[in-house]
Amino acid sequence: MEKLLLLLLPVPFVIGFMAPGAASEPVPGTVVFSYTDPEIVESSGLVARDGLVVTVNDSGDSNRIFTVDPATGDTVGVTRWQGDARDIEAIAPAGDGEVYVGDIGDNAATREEIEIARVPFGRGNQDVDAATYDLVYPDGPHDAETLLVHPKTGQVFVVAKEFIGRIYAAPNDLDEKGLNELAAVDEVLGTATDGAFFPDGEHLVLRNYGQAAVYTWPDLDRVATVDLPAQQQGEGIAVSESGEVLIGSEGVNSEVLRVDLPTDESAAPTPGASNEGVPVTAADDRSLWPWALGGVAGLAVIVVLIRSLRPRP
User: Fold this and answer.
1) 277 partner at 20 to 30 Å CA-CA among 37, 181, 270, 284?
2) CATH code of residue 176
């Protein structure tokens, strides 16, 4: 009995942490296109560059990316590169006509190192010999689905997909031949499935399956949290050179939507208010009742545990 109570002790606090804040309507989403390619079945990452959209399938696919024309939803180019994929989960802009692809998934948290590849995208099919880089965490393996690249410096970041997310920074200059050790930066949105910097380099957005959070950079102050439109399994988010935000989902013929996100605290009203029709929830206005409920439940568990451990006559 005592062992069971010890195992249950953290549960109320986890419930309090994971419970949502004040409810709000999702931000409106406008359908831009639907994928027409039957090979795109698990779009897990998204990049919007040069008037095109680039995506990559989730784990189980080979080393390949798809370039899509958003005017039609048709695949106009496929790039393949050397090697065997383990668990590709993410994609991010890497400069003119190139993207970083992140083989960074690790559901069991057992990989000693993860890998990113720098590959070209665009119209037409091509096979390339891509530059690849091995990354290692400073504190042991983590599962991750988010790859970020700063638009001004080109520095690469990985976000661990955990209940309490954490962003890790790669070295400024990546080494193809050796291990590139990541450095922990700060805590961010939990269970993040994708993210992107805004063009100014002073803001970034992370998303999970139902929400998006906008942060300042490099302070990582959360500007706002918004509920996203419902999707089959929303995993991708991209910010174009002009600041347009797109979100994507896994699934055959899935839709890519355009959404509006605030990047300034003055654009983030209190819950229930609207900003030109875009309701948001300020990051610091989470409801306190989940924490209170979790605390009361936790206290009750502690009392029962103490009573159970009390010596009996």
Assistant:
1) 284
2) 2.115.10
The confidence score (pLDDT) of residue 60 equals 83
Let me know if residue 6 belongs to a domain. no
Domain that holds residue 172: 29-269
Angle between helices 289-309 and 11-18 (to 10 degrees): 180
Average pLDDT over residues 226-233: 94
* Measured CA angle at 235 (ends 231, 237), to 5 deg: 100
**Which is more confident, 60 or 268?**
60
CA distance 167 to 5: 33
Domains in the chain: how many in total? 1
Is residue 207 in a domain?
yes
